[in-house]
Write a structure and sequence with these properties.
CATH class of the domain at 130-265: Alpha Beta
Helix content: 55-70%
Order of helices and strands: HHHEHHEEEE
Number of helices: 5
Strand content: 15-25%
GO cellular component, one term: membrane
Strand order of the largest sheet: 1-2-3-4-5
Biased composition (Basic and acidic residues): 1-22
CATH architecture of the domain at 130-265: Roll
Structural class: alpha+beta
Subcellular location: Membrane
CATH superfamily of the domain at 130-265: VirB8 protein
Largest sheet: 5 strands, antiparallel
Low-confidence stretches: 1-6, 15-30, 48-111
Keywords: Membrane, Transmembrane, Transmembrane helix
Shape: globular
Mean pLDDT: 70
Distance between the termini: 190 Å
Organism: Rhodococcus opacus
Number of strands: 5
Amino acid sequence: MAKTKSEPVTKPEPAKKQEPVEKSAPVAKAEAATTAAAAAASSAASDGASKTSDTNATVSLAKSVSTAKTASAGKTKVPNLQPRISKQQAPTAAETAADGNGSGRITWKLVGILGAVAVVLGVFAVVAAFKPGADITNTAWVDEGATAEVTKAGTEAIETLYTYSYETIDQDFEKARGYLNDAKRDEFDSTADTTKEAAIQTKTATQASVTDIGVTVLDGDRAELLAHMNVSATGDAVAQGSAATPLSIKMEKIDGKWVLSDISDSEG
């Protein structure tokens, strides 16, 4: 019976001894340990996160305090800078004002000169109006047309009388005679030859200009004026200088034309 001897093949007991495979307790313990470790790690992570959050909060607060201090510091610096800026700007404003004042001075100087001339002319009229013994028929600066007419005639008469050239002296003297009345023309002619001879010898030429003039009396065909004249001279084409003098003149209207009846230095 050879078939009965092969029974050892059917012995399963050695295979059953592999029961340790079915032992899951160590694995469970390992899993439990792993789970516990994970939980501990999670807890630690949570605690760490909490601590980190607290730390961040602390840092945030610290930064806020630092920022607040910086902002506060910034605010304290502004008042200190503003006065400096103002002090630095002040000279600029002063310079601007000075520049403005500079141009202003030129303008006001011109205005002042013109104003002074107007005042002087106005004073002439006032003095004439309130002068003791003044005729109430004085229309100087009242009759504007007549005042302007005699003012122009007086200016032309003075400038023509004192302007001449040795090259054209005969024509110049003849023109001057046209602004003189008979008496004044005779006086002029009495010295004309002497003046002419001296002018030709020295090659003299003169140029007169009236700088200011005003009517003090205007009564019908009679007028009185105050004037200021500048006269420059050259000899043989070389400048000889200039002179300024105030004049007092009287004029009368003859045949519709204003002519000089008297002329003198108003300071004399």
